[in-house]
Write a structure and sequence with these properties.
With 97 residues, the protein is an all-beta fold. The protein contains no helices and six strands. The chain starts with a strand and ends in a 6-residue tail after the last strand. The model has no long low-confidence stretch (mean pLDDT 82).
Amino acid sequence: MSVICGCCAGGKVELVNPTMATVMILDDDHGGVFHFDQEDISFPESIGEAKIRVARSSGARGRVVLPYKTVELTAKGGGQDFWDEDSELVFENDEIE
C-alpha cells in the first residue's frame, strides 16, 4: 500500500512493517449533556421573574427537546409563590444555551 503525500520529497510514502495502526475516533456527534449554569440557585421573593440558564455541553448535534415542570417544596405553586409550569425547553442543532 502506498499513500501520496505532497509534503515529502518525491511525494510518495510507503507503509512498512508493522502495517497496522490504532485509531481513536472521538464521538462528538451526540446530543450533549444538559445542566444548570449553577448548582445552587436562590432568589429573593421580590424578584418578580427569575431566569435560570440551562447549558448544553459535550456535543450539540441535532434538535433536543427537554420536558420540564415546576414542583412545590417549601414554595407553593398556583400563583402563591410561583406559577406552575409544565412545558418543554428546545435546543436546536448546534445550540448550546
